[in-house]
Design goal:
Layout (H helix, E strand, L loop, with lengths): L11 E6 L3 H18 L2 E2 L8 E6 L6 H18 L4 E5 H7 L2 H5 L5 E3 L7 H11 L3 E3 L23 E5 L1 E2 L10 H5 L3 E2 L2 H13 L4 E5 L7 E3 L5 E3 H9 L6 E5 L8 H9 L6 E3 L7 H6 L6 H14 L4 E8 L6 H14 L3 E6 L17 H24 L5 E9 L6 E5 L5 E5 L8 E9 L4 E5 L5
Parallel strand pairs: 1-2, 1-3, 3-4, 4-5, 5-6, 7-10, 10-13, 14-15, 15-16, 19-21
Antiparallel strand pairs: 8-9, 11-12, 17-18, 17-20, 18-19, 20-21
Helix pairs in contact: 9-11, 12-13
The protein binds S-adenosyl-L-homocysteine, iron/sulfur cluster (SF4) and FE3-S4 cluster.
S-adenosyl-L-homocysteine binds next to strand 15.
């Protein structure tokens, strides 16, 4: 018989987040939800918590194992504090569903990226009925309608993330995201504008638009017509208080000349784009179902550079996709050299359960993957250093983000083209846009000195 206990009080929340910025955003919304519903206070360690949430990622290998080993640690805490509530959300939860509670029966709640707005109701049920709950539905309705408003939010700080679209319909053969996040769904223009204005009104000056394929954004505009991503950018750029506008991630297949031109025409749109290509080989791109070839990608890069010659570029690469030959890999190196990226994220291919590529033989030996990865990383770090060195002696506009943890008296910020700069400055500069003369280029960041304007 279930006991209808008077629930013990819950005061504190610990949340651990893995994966992409969409997950970071979702976690912050979960915190908002739990604060609103229960007045929970966020704590820094699981030991202090009455509720522990994990927001998981399943994009690369060993994701599930990492989750279970972390859960093992939480089990020990629950042995000491039986009222502790443990919830697992995110992309592993979406894929594994009830399997999580079969393997880890002390987990109270399992929920997916599209159902976390039900968290307060789930927690209520757990506390009152002492049952385990699973909710991995992907409802058609907008979860955004059920989340607290991105609010007054001093905690939004000076730079905020705003999710404008969810999910992915591209079904690249190696990728779990379409299965964990569901199909592409864009938020109405008016909702995005209202969220952004609220955030700007709270003192934030930089907005980062988020989505798996932001440039695939298509939604109803205030005029009743369908708006695309570029139209949204122009509208957002008019918002009061906005100094910097960024977005991530873009898909090469959804690029067009209008979007490239926006970099020239919208002053607040920062000159940086993350445009993952994954491979430089036409054969591999085709096998991955990326929907474009090398030539189209080069064409897009040329259009971006035509409209915005100083645009910084980054990408993701997958090394050792099933069947990738030495020649395919040379094509990737060649593409990297021709584009001349500012930086990139490079991953060894790992077969993900349930994806089409997982049916192909993962036939590139680990040593070959390692060797190719090493060559790509070496090339990439040369390009990264070169792009930093090109800024030596220049004066860059820097948005100061925080005080430096390593060097007392230093602050840290980003240039318009997303490079990290350290310089000596007072903590009160945090949140301000300042001019910094670049004096040193390191491997992955810059150092400079504040330019004091003589008025
Ligand atoms: N929507 C984005 C990428 C989202 S996933 C895009 O299409 O560009 C982030 C990155 O993880 C991908 O760009 C890819 O490089 C990497 N990735 C995804 N699945 C992977 C797998 N099975 N093995 C290795 N890397 C993978
Ligand atoms: Fe994954 Fe491809 Fe969708 Fe990116 S576009 S999220 S790599 S399926
Ligand atoms: Fe990971 Fe899910 Fe993001 S799989 S990368 S957390 S969309």
């Amino acid at each position: 018989m279930k006991s209808q206990n008077t629930p013990t009080s819950i005061d504190t929340l610990f949340i651990k987040t893995y994966g992409c910025q969409m997950n970071e955003y979702d976690s912050s919304r979960m915190v908002d939800l739990m604060q609103q519903a229960y007045g929970l206070r966020l704590v820094a360690t699981p030991q202090e918590a009455d509720v522990i949430l994990m927001n998981t990622c399943s994009v690369r290998e060993k994701a599930e194992e990492k989750v279970y080993s972390e859960l093992g640690r939480y089990r020990l805490l629950k042995l000491k504090k039986p009222a502790l509530i443990i919830g697992v959300g995110g992309c592993v939860a979406q894929q594994e569903g009830e399997r999580i509670q079969r393997r880890a029966p002390y987990v109270d709640a399992v929920f997916g990226p599209q159902s976390y707005h039900h968290l307060p109701a789930m927690i209520n049920k757990i506390r009152r009925e002492r049952v385990r709950v699973t909710d991995t539905d992907m409802p058609e309705i907008e979860k955004f309608d059920h989340l607290p408003k991105a609010k007054d939010g001093l905690k939004q700080g000076i730079s905020a993330f705003v999710t404008i679209m969810e999910g992915c319909d591209k079904f690249c053969t190696f990728c779990v995201v379409p299965y964990t996040r569901g199909s592409e769904l864009s938020r109405p223009v008016a909702d995005v504008m209202a969220d952004c204005q609220r955030i700007l009104d709270s003192g934030c000056i930089e907005i980062n638009l988020l989505g798996q394929n932001v440039n695939g954004y298509r939604a109803a505009g205030p005029d009743g017509e369908e708006w695309d991503f570029t139209m949204l950018l122009y509208a957002l750029s008019e918002l009061q208080g906005l100094k910097r506008l960024r977005f991530t991630t873009s898909h090469p297949m959804e690029m067009n000349e209008d979007l490239a031109r926006a970099f020239a025409e919208i002053p607040v749109l920062m000159p940086f784009i993350h445009l993952p290509v994954q491979s430089g080989s036409d054969r591999v791109l085709k096998a991955m179902h990326r929907g474009h070839d090398r030539a189209t990608y080069f064409h897009t890069i040329a259009a971006l550079r035509k409209h915005c010659p100083h645009i910084a570029l980054s990408s993701d690469f997958i090394i050792g996709y099933p069947g990738e030959t030495d020649e395919d890999f040379e094509q990737t190196l060649d593409l990297v050299r021709q584009v001349g990226y500012d930086f990139a994220y490079c991953f060894k291919y790992s077969a993900r359960p349930g994806t089409p590529a997982a049916d192909s033989d993962d036939n590139i030996p680990e040593v070959v993957k390692d060797e190719r990865l090493q060559r790509l990383l070496t090339l990439m770090s040369e390009l990264c250093s070169a792009s930093l060195q090109r800024q030596l002696g220049t004066v860059q506009s820097v948005l100061v983000e925080k005080t430096s943890r390593k060097n007392e008296g230093d602050v840290q910020g980003r240039t318009e083209d997303f490079k990290i700069v350290h310089f000596s400055g007072k903590p009160r500069l945090v949140g301000q846009l300042v001019d910094v003369r670049i004096t040193t280029a390191y491997g992955q960041s810059l150092r400079g000195e504040l330019v004091i304007k003589d008025d």
